[in-house]
Design brief:
Belongs to the CDP-alcohol phosphatidyltransferase class-I family. Its EC number is 2.7.8.2. It is a multi-pass membrane protein. It is found in: Endomembrane system. The protein is mostly helical. Strand 3 and strand 4 form a beta hairpin. The two termini are 40 Å apart. The relative contact order is 0.13. The C terminus is likely disordered.
Protein backbone atom coordinates (compact mmCIF):
# COMPACT_ATOMS: atom_id res chain seq x y z
CA UNK A 1 0.00 0.00 0.00
CA UNK A 2 1.34 3.37 -1.00
CA UNK A 3 0.69 6.34 1.29
CA UNK A 4 0.09 9.44 -0.83
CA UNK A 5 1.96 12.71 -0.39
CA UNK A 6 -1.27 14.30 0.82
CA UNK A 7 -1.64 11.61 3.50
CA UNK A 8 1.97 12.03 4.58
CA UNK A 9 1.39 15.77 4.87
CA UNK A 10 -1.58 14.98 7.11
CA UNK A 11 0.77 13.27 9.54
CA UNK A 12 2.41 16.64 10.20
CA UNK A 13 -0.93 17.84 11.59
CA UNK A 14 -1.35 14.84 13.85
CA UNK A 15 -1.39 15.42 17.60
CA UNK A 16 -2.42 12.82 20.13
CA UNK A 17 -5.42 13.68 22.29
CA UNK A 18 -6.81 11.44 25.01
CA UNK A 19 -9.30 11.61 27.89
CA UNK A 20 -9.18 8.98 30.63
CA UNK A 21 -12.00 9.17 33.20
CA UNK A 22 -11.08 5.94 34.96
CA UNK A 23 -10.72 6.39 38.71
CA UNK A 24 -8.76 3.16 38.93
CA UNK A 25 -6.37 4.31 36.24
CA UNK A 26 -5.87 7.71 37.87
CA UNK A 27 -5.35 6.67 41.49
CA UNK A 28 -4.05 3.09 41.36
CA UNK A 29 -2.66 2.02 38.03
CA UNK A 30 -1.41 5.45 36.99
CA UNK A 31 1.19 5.71 39.77
CA UNK A 32 2.21 2.10 39.13
CA UNK A 33 2.72 2.77 35.43
CA UNK A 34 4.71 5.94 36.19
CA UNK A 35 7.05 3.87 38.34
CA UNK A 36 7.17 0.91 35.95
CA UNK A 37 8.37 2.93 32.96
CA UNK A 38 11.45 4.02 34.93
CA UNK A 39 12.62 0.40 34.97
CA UNK A 40 13.04 0.44 31.19
CA UNK A 41 16.18 2.03 29.70
CA UNK A 42 15.79 4.99 27.39
CA UNK A 43 17.57 2.95 24.72
CA UNK A 44 14.44 0.78 24.37
CA UNK A 45 11.96 2.03 21.78
CA UNK A 46 8.32 2.47 22.91
CA UNK A 47 7.00 0.30 20.05
CA UNK A 48 9.34 -2.47 21.18
CA UNK A 49 7.74 -2.31 24.62
CA UNK A 50 4.28 -2.56 23.02
CA UNK A 51 5.33 -5.57 20.97
CA UNK A 52 6.91 -7.29 23.97
CA UNK A 53 3.60 -6.91 25.78
CA UNK A 54 1.77 -8.55 22.87
CA UNK A 55 4.30 -11.39 22.96
CA UNK A 56 3.09 -12.26 26.48
CA UNK A 57 -0.42 -12.80 25.12
CA UNK A 58 0.87 -14.73 22.11
CA UNK A 59 2.73 -16.99 24.54
CA UNK A 60 -0.56 -17.52 26.39
CA UNK A 61 -2.21 -18.60 23.15
CA UNK A 62 0.59 -21.10 22.51
CA UNK A 63 -0.04 -22.70 25.90
CA UNK A 64 -3.69 -23.10 24.90
CA UNK A 65 -2.70 -24.65 21.57
CA UNK A 66 -0.31 -27.04 23.32
CA UNK A 67 -2.89 -28.41 25.77
CA UNK A 68 -6.06 -28.04 23.67
CA UNK A 69 -5.10 -27.60 19.99
CA UNK A 70 -8.61 -28.36 18.69
CA UNK A 71 -10.32 -25.97 21.12
CA UNK A 72 -12.69 -28.68 22.36
CA UNK A 73 -12.73 -27.39 25.94
CA UNK A 74 -10.20 -29.56 27.74
CA UNK A 75 -9.58 -28.49 31.33
CA UNK A 76 -6.07 -27.06 31.44
CA UNK A 77 -3.61 -27.14 34.36
CA UNK A 78 -4.31 -24.37 36.87
CA UNK A 79 -0.94 -22.74 36.23
CA UNK A 80 -1.96 -22.13 32.61
CA UNK A 81 -4.94 -19.97 33.58
CA UNK A 82 -2.73 -18.19 36.12
CA UNK A 83 -0.17 -17.48 33.39
CA UNK A 84 -2.95 -16.02 31.24
CA UNK A 85 -3.78 -13.53 33.99
CA UNK A 86 -0.14 -12.59 34.41
CA UNK A 87 0.39 -12.31 30.65
CA UNK A 88 -2.66 -10.10 30.13
CA UNK A 89 -1.72 -7.84 33.03
CA UNK A 90 1.80 -7.56 31.60
CA UNK A 91 0.31 -6.63 28.23
CA UNK A 92 -1.91 -3.97 29.80
CA UNK A 93 1.04 -2.52 31.71
CA UNK A 94 3.32 -2.33 28.69
CA UNK A 95 0.51 -0.98 26.54
CA UNK A 96 0.02 1.78 29.12
CA UNK A 97 3.68 2.81 29.45
CA UNK A 98 4.64 2.89 25.77
CA UNK A 99 3.35 6.46 25.50
CA UNK A 100 5.32 7.46 28.59
CA UNK A 101 8.42 5.87 27.09
CA UNK A 102 7.82 7.76 23.85
CA UNK A 103 7.85 11.06 25.72
CA UNK A 104 10.97 10.03 27.67
CA UNK A 105 12.85 9.23 24.48
CA UNK A 106 11.41 11.90 22.20
CA UNK A 107 9.85 9.18 20.03
CA UNK A 108 6.19 10.29 20.13
CA UNK A 109 4.69 10.07 16.65
CA UNK A 110 1.64 9.08 14.64
CA UNK A 111 3.29 5.71 14.01
CA UNK A 112 3.29 5.06 17.74
CA UNK A 113 -0.49 5.36 17.91
CA UNK A 114 -0.93 3.18 14.84
CA UNK A 115 1.36 0.48 16.23
CA UNK A 116 -0.28 0.63 19.66
CA UNK A 117 -3.81 0.33 18.26
CA UNK A 118 -2.74 -2.38 15.82
CA UNK A 119 -1.44 -4.52 18.68
CA UNK A 120 -4.62 -3.80 20.65
CA UNK A 121 -6.72 -5.00 17.72
CA UNK A 122 -4.82 -8.30 17.56
CA UNK A 123 -4.98 -8.72 21.33
CA UNK A 124 -8.76 -8.29 21.29
CA UNK A 125 -9.27 -11.47 19.28
CA UNK A 126 -6.60 -13.40 21.20
CA UNK A 127 -8.32 -12.58 24.49
CA UNK A 128 -11.70 -13.62 23.09
CA UNK A 129 -10.21 -17.05 22.33
CA UNK A 130 -8.58 -17.35 25.76
CA UNK A 131 -11.45 -15.92 27.78
CA UNK A 132 -14.08 -18.04 26.01
CA UNK A 133 -12.02 -21.12 26.87
CA UNK A 134 -11.65 -20.07 30.52
CA UNK A 135 -15.43 -19.52 30.69
CA UNK A 136 -16.09 -22.96 29.25
CA UNK A 137 -17.72 -21.60 26.07
CA UNK A 138 -15.22 -22.92 23.49
CA UNK A 139 -16.89 -24.15 20.27
CA UNK A 140 -20.20 -22.34 20.55
CA UNK A 141 -22.18 -19.44 19.20
CA UNK A 142 -21.40 -17.67 22.47
CA UNK A 143 -17.75 -17.48 21.41
CA UNK A 144 -18.85 -16.09 18.05
CA UNK A 145 -21.05 -13.52 19.80
CA UNK A 146 -18.18 -12.61 22.11
CA UNK A 147 -15.90 -12.03 19.12
CA UNK A 148 -18.47 -9.84 17.38
CA UNK A 149 -19.19 -7.77 20.50
CA UNK A 150 -15.52 -7.32 21.47
CA UNK A 151 -14.52 -6.20 17.98
CA UNK A 152 -17.55 -3.91 17.83
CA UNK A 153 -16.39 -2.24 21.04
CA UNK A 154 -12.95 -1.68 19.59
CA UNK A 155 -14.29 -0.44 16.26
CA UNK A 156 -16.67 1.98 17.98
CA UNK A 157 -13.81 3.56 19.95
CA UNK A 158 -11.66 3.88 16.82
CA UNK A 159 -14.58 5.29 14.82
CA UNK A 160 -15.16 7.78 17.64
CA UNK A 161 -11.51 8.84 17.65
CA UNK A 162 -11.57 9.36 13.87
CA UNK A 163 -14.49 11.78 14.11
CA UNK A 164 -13.54 13.55 17.34
CA UNK A 165 -9.74 13.47 17.19
CA UNK A 166 -9.71 12.25 20.80
CA UNK A 167 -9.41 8.81 22.36
CA UNK A 168 -11.99 8.62 25.16
CA UNK A 169 -11.72 6.13 28.01
CA UNK A 170 -14.82 6.17 30.19
CA UNK A 171 -15.09 5.44 33.91
CA UNK A 172 -15.36 1.77 32.94
CA UNK A 173 -13.36 1.06 29.80
CA UNK A 174 -12.09 -2.02 28.05
CA UNK A 175 -8.36 -1.17 28.18
CA UNK A 176 -8.46 -0.65 31.95
CA UNK A 177 -11.33 -2.18 33.91
CA UNK A 178 -12.28 -4.61 31.14
CA UNK A 179 -8.81 -6.16 31.03
CA UNK A 180 -8.64 -6.41 34.83
CA UNK A 181 -12.03 -8.11 34.84
CA UNK A 182 -10.74 -10.73 32.41
CA UNK A 183 -7.65 -11.18 34.59
CA UNK A 184 -9.98 -11.93 37.50
CA UNK A 185 -11.83 -14.50 35.36
CA UNK A 186 -8.53 -16.25 34.67
CA UNK A 187 -7.61 -16.20 38.37
CA UNK A 188 -10.97 -17.64 39.45
CA UNK A 189 -10.68 -20.36 36.80
CA UNK A 190 -7.16 -21.14 38.00
CA UNK A 191 -7.95 -21.44 41.70
CA UNK A 192 -11.56 -22.64 41.85
CA UNK A 193 -11.90 -26.42 42.32
CA UNK A 194 -14.32 -26.64 39.37
CA UNK A 195 -12.00 -24.77 37.01
CA UNK A 196 -13.88 -23.67 33.86
CA UNK A 197 -16.86 -25.68 35.12
CA UNK A 198 -17.48 -22.99 37.73
CA UNK A 199 -18.75 -20.64 35.03
CA UNK A 200 -21.53 -23.06 34.08
CA UNK A 201 -23.06 -22.89 37.56
CA UNK A 202 -26.06 -20.57 38.12
CA UNK A 203 -24.88 -17.12 39.10
CA UNK A 204 -27.68 -16.62 41.66
CA UNK A 205 -27.03 -19.88 43.54
CA UNK A 206 -25.31 -18.10 46.48
CA UNK A 207 -28.27 -15.71 46.77
CA UNK A 208 -30.81 -18.53 46.75
CA UNK A 209 -28.85 -20.48 49.36
CA UNK A 210 -28.57 -17.45 51.63
CA UNK A 211 -32.17 -16.34 51.10
CA UNK A 212 -34.36 -19.33 50.07
CA UNK A 213 -37.43 -17.10 49.93
CA UNK A 214 -35.87 -15.21 47.01
CA UNK A 215 -36.54 -18.23 44.76
CA UNK A 216 -40.28 -17.47 44.73
CA UNK A 217 -39.57 -13.93 43.58
CA UNK A 218 -37.28 -15.18 40.82
CA UNK A 219 -39.93 -17.63 39.63
CA UNK A 220 -42.48 -14.82 39.48
CA UNK A 221 -40.08 -12.68 37.43
CA UNK A 222 -39.49 -15.61 35.05
CA UNK A 223 -43.22 -16.00 34.51
CA UNK A 224 -43.78 -12.28 34.05
CA UNK A 225 -40.96 -11.88 31.51
CA UNK A 226 -41.57 -15.23 29.85
CA UNK A 227 -38.02 -16.43 30.47
CA UNK A 228 -37.26 -20.00 29.42
CA UNK A 229 -34.37 -22.47 29.48
CA UNK A 230 -31.12 -21.24 30.96
CA UNK A 231 -32.45 -17.68 30.75
CA UNK A 232 -34.55 -18.43 33.83
CA UNK A 233 -32.96 -16.38 36.58
CA UNK A 234 -32.42 -19.29 38.97
CA UNK A 235 -30.67 -21.22 36.17
CA UNK A 236 -28.73 -18.40 34.49
CA UNK A 237 -25.09 -19.62 34.21
CA UNK A 238 -22.26 -17.31 35.18
CA UNK A 239 -20.77 -17.36 31.69
CA UNK A 240 -24.08 -16.45 30.03
CA UNK A 241 -24.56 -13.66 32.56
CA UNK A 242 -21.08 -12.39 31.71
CA UNK A 243 -21.88 -12.47 27.99
CA UNK A 244 -25.10 -10.54 28.64
CA UNK A 245 -23.17 -7.94 30.63
CA UNK A 246 -20.72 -7.66 27.73
CA UNK A 247 -23.56 -7.12 25.25
CA UNK A 248 -25.00 -4.33 27.37
CA UNK A 249 -21.54 -2.81 27.62
CA UNK A 250 -21.20 -2.88 23.84
CA UNK A 251 -24.48 -1.05 23.36
CA UNK A 252 -23.49 1.47 26.02
CA UNK A 253 -20.12 2.05 24.35
CA UNK A 254 -21.77 2.67 20.97
CA UNK A 255 -24.21 5.16 22.50
CA UNK A 256 -21.47 6.97 24.43
CA UNK A 257 -19.18 7.09 21.39
CA UNK A 258 -21.91 8.57 19.23
CA UNK A 259 -22.71 11.12 21.94
CA UNK A 260 -19.10 12.30 21.88
CA UNK A 261 -19.15 12.41 18.08
CA UNK A 262 -22.34 14.50 18.11
CA UNK A 263 -20.74 17.02 20.45
CA UNK A 264 -17.59 17.26 18.33
CA UNK A 265 -19.50 17.55 15.05
CA UNK A 266 -21.86 20.22 16.38
CA UNK A 267 -18.90 22.19 17.70
CA UNK A 268 -17.32 22.01 14.24
CA UNK A 269 -20.62 22.87 12.51
CA UNK A 270 -20.77 19.50 10.70
CA UNK A 271 -23.74 17.12 10.17
CA UNK A 272 -24.25 14.52 12.89
CA UNK A 273 -25.87 11.68 10.93
CA UNK A 274 -23.29 11.06 8.18
CA UNK A 275 -20.67 9.61 10.60
CA UNK A 276 -23.02 6.69 11.26
CA UNK A 277 -22.24 5.46 7.74
CA UNK A 278 -18.83 4.59 9.15
CA UNK A 279 -20.37 1.59 10.90
CA UNK A 280 -21.35 0.04 7.57
CA UNK A 281 -17.93 -1.55 6.86
CA UNK A 282 -17.80 -3.27 10.24
CA UNK A 283 -21.39 -4.49 10.35
CA UNK A 284 -21.30 -5.56 6.69
CA UNK A 285 -18.15 -7.64 7.19
CA UNK A 286 -19.50 -9.08 10.44
CA UNK A 287 -22.75 -10.06 8.73
CA UNK A 288 -20.78 -11.77 5.95
CA UNK A 289 -18.70 -13.76 8.45
CA UNK A 290 -21.68 -14.78 10.60
CA UNK A 291 -23.55 -15.88 7.46
CA UNK A 292 -20.49 -17.95 6.54
CA UNK A 293 -20.68 -19.64 9.96
CA UNK A 294 -24.45 -20.02 9.63
CA UNK A 295 -23.96 -22.42 6.69
CA UNK A 296 -23.67 -25.35 9.09
CA UNK A 297 -27.28 -24.81 10.14
CA UNK A 298 -28.32 -25.38 6.51
CA UNK A 299 -26.39 -28.56 5.89
CA UNK A 300 -23.03 -26.96 5.13
CA UNK A 301 -19.67 -27.86 6.61
CA UNK A 302 -19.62 -27.40 10.38
CA UNK A 303 -17.54 -24.45 11.59
CA UNK A 304 -18.88 -23.27 14.93
CA UNK A 305 -19.00 -26.69 16.59
CA UNK A 306 -15.79 -27.98 15.06
CA UNK A 307 -12.06 -27.49 15.45
CA UNK A 308 -12.27 -25.17 12.43
CA UNK A 309 -13.73 -22.47 14.67
CA UNK A 310 -10.31 -21.58 16.09
CA UNK A 311 -8.58 -20.80 12.75
CA UNK A 312 -11.79 -19.11 11.57
CA UNK A 313 -11.76 -16.79 14.60
CA UNK A 314 -8.08 -16.18 13.84
CA UNK A 315 -8.97 -15.24 10.25
CA UNK A 316 -11.74 -12.96 11.50
CA UNK A 317 -9.39 -11.28 13.94
CA UNK A 318 -6.62 -10.62 11.41
CA UNK A 319 -9.11 -9.38 8.82
CA UNK A 320 -10.54 -7.02 11.45
CA UNK A 321 -7.07 -5.82 12.46
CA UNK A 322 -6.44 -4.92 8.83
CA UNK A 323 -9.79 -3.13 8.60
CA UNK A 324 -9.37 -1.12 11.79
CA UNK A 325 -5.72 -0.31 11.02
CA UNK A 326 -6.86 1.31 7.78
CA UNK A 327 -9.22 3.43 9.87
CA UNK A 328 -6.41 4.38 12.26
CA UNK A 329 -4.21 5.28 9.30
CA UNK A 330 -6.99 7.48 7.94
CA UNK A 331 -7.21 9.18 11.34
CA UNK A 332 -3.51 10.01 11.69
CA UNK A 333 -3.17 11.08 8.04
CA UNK A 334 -6.39 13.13 7.97
CA UNK A 335 -7.71 10.98 5.11
CA UNK A 336 -11.25 10.10 3.99
CA UNK A 337 -13.03 7.33 5.88
CA UNK A 338 -12.12 3.86 4.49
CA UNK A 339 -15.38 2.11 3.61
CA UNK A 340 -14.09 -1.11 2.13
CA UNK A 341 -11.05 -3.38 1.81
CA UNK A 342 -9.99 -6.48 -0.07
CA UNK A 343 -10.50 -8.87 2.85
CA UNK A 344 -14.23 -8.18 2.70
CA UNK A 345 -14.24 -9.57 -0.85
CA UNK A 346 -12.36 -12.67 0.29
CA UNK A 347 -14.87 -13.19 3.12
CA UNK A 348 -17.75 -12.73 0.68
CA UNK A 349 -16.36 -15.52 -1.50
CA UNK A 350 -16.01 -17.83 1.52
CA UNK A 351 -19.55 -17.06 2.62
CA UNK A 352 -21.09 -17.64 -0.82
CA UNK A 353 -19.13 -20.86 -1.27
CA UNK A 354 -20.16 -22.21 2.15
CA UNK A 355 -23.83 -21.53 1.41
CA UNK A 356 -23.72 -22.70 -2.22
CA UNK A 357 -25.79 -25.85 -1.65
CA UNK A 358 -28.55 -23.96 0.17
CA UNK A 359 -28.65 -20.88 -2.07
CA UNK A 360 -27.62 -22.19 -5.50
CA UNK A 361 -28.31 -25.92 -5.29
CA UNK A 362 -24.70 -26.87 -6.07
CA UNK A 363 -21.74 -28.17 -4.11
CA UNK A 364 -19.24 -25.63 -2.74
CA UNK A 365 -16.09 -25.12 -4.79
CA UNK A 366 -13.55 -25.09 -1.95
CA UNK A 367 -15.51 -26.26 1.09
CA UNK A 368 -17.12 -29.34 -0.44
CA UNK A 369 -15.83 -31.73 2.24
CA UNK A 370 -14.47 -31.60 5.80
CA UNK A 371 -10.90 -32.01 4.55
CA UNK A 372 -11.32 -29.29 1.93
CA UNK A 373 -12.87 -27.00 4.53
CA UNK A 374 -9.94 -27.63 6.87
CA UNK A 375 -7.50 -26.62 4.15
CA UNK A 376 -9.46 -23.54 3.08
CA UNK A 377 -10.12 -22.20 6.59
CA UNK A 378 -6.50 -22.75 7.61
CA UNK A 379 -5.30 -21.10 4.40
CA UNK A 380 -7.68 -18.19 4.99
CA UNK A 381 -6.09 -17.48 8.35
CA UNK A 382 -2.62 -17.30 6.80
CA UNK A 383 -3.91 -15.16 3.93
CA UNK A 384 -5.31 -12.64 6.45
CA UNK A 385 -2.16 -12.84 8.58
CA UNK A 386 0.25 -12.21 5.71
CA UNK A 387 -1.97 -9.48 4.29
CA UNK A 388 -1.89 -7.66 7.62
CA UNK A 389 1.86 -8.12 8.00
CA UNK A 390 2.33 -6.77 4.46
CA UNK A 391 0.16 -3.76 5.25
CA UNK A 392 1.93 -3.08 8.56
CA UNK A 393 5.39 -3.42 7.04
CA UNK A 394 4.66 -1.03 4.17
CA UNK A 395 3.00 1.56 6.40
CA UNK A 396 5.76 1.41 9.03
CA UNK A 397 8.49 1.79 6.41
CA UNK A 398 6.84 4.75 4.66
CA UNK A 399 5.99 6.64 7.86
CA UNK A 400 9.44 6.12 9.38
CA UNK A 401 11.07 7.34 6.18
CA UNK A 402 8.85 10.43 6.12
CA UNK A 403 8.98 11.38 9.81
CA UNK A 404 12.59 10.37 10.37
CA UNK A 405 11.61 8.54 13.56
CA UNK A 406 12.47 4.83 13.76
CA UNK A 407 9.95 2.18 14.78
CA UNK A 408 11.83 -0.38 16.89
CA UNK A 409 15.00 1.52 17.75
CA UNK A 410 15.57 4.86 19.47
CA UNK A 411 16.92 6.62 16.38
CA UNK A 412 16.07 9.54 14.12
CA UNK A 413 17.31 10.96 10.85
CA UNK A 414 19.82 13.81 11.05
CA UNK A 415 20.04 16.77 8.67
CA UNK A 416 21.92 14.59 6.17
CA UNK A 417 19.22 11.92 6.17
CA UNK A 418 21.33 9.45 8.12
CA UNK A 419 19.91 7.38 10.96
CA UNK A 420 21.54 8.35 14.28
CA UNK A 421 20.92 7.48 17.92
CA UNK A 422 18.75 9.89 19.91
CA UNK A 423 20.87 12.14 22.10
CA UNK A 424 18.80 11.48 25.22
CA UNK A 425 19.18 7.73 24.90
CA UNK A 426 22.92 8.08 24.32
CA UNK A 427 23.29 10.10 27.54
CA UNK A 428 21.28 7.51 29.44
CA UNK A 429 23.41 4.66 28.07
CA UNK A 430 26.58 6.43 29.24
Amino acid sequence: MRITKKQLAGIDKYKYSGVDKSILSKHVLGPFWTWLVTLFPKTLAPNTITFLGLCFVIANVFTLLYFDPTYEGKVLPSWVYLSWAIGLFAYQSMDAIDGKQARRTGMASALGEMFDHGCDAINTTLEVVLCAHALGLNRSWWTVASQAASLCNFYASTWEEYHTGTLYLSAFSGPVEGILMICVIYLITAFHPLGPGFWSTPILTPLIKAFPQSLDLLLQINETLGLKGYWKLERLPCNVAFMTFGALGTVGNIVTSYSNVIQARRKAGKPILSPLLGYLPFFTHTLILVTWLHAELRGGVSLVHDARLLPFIGYWGMAFSYQVSQLILAHVTKSPFPFWNGMMVYSLFGMLDANALWWFGREPLVQSSPVAANVFIGMSFFVALFNYIRFAREVIWQITEYTGIACFTVRHKDANGQWVQNIESEKKAQ
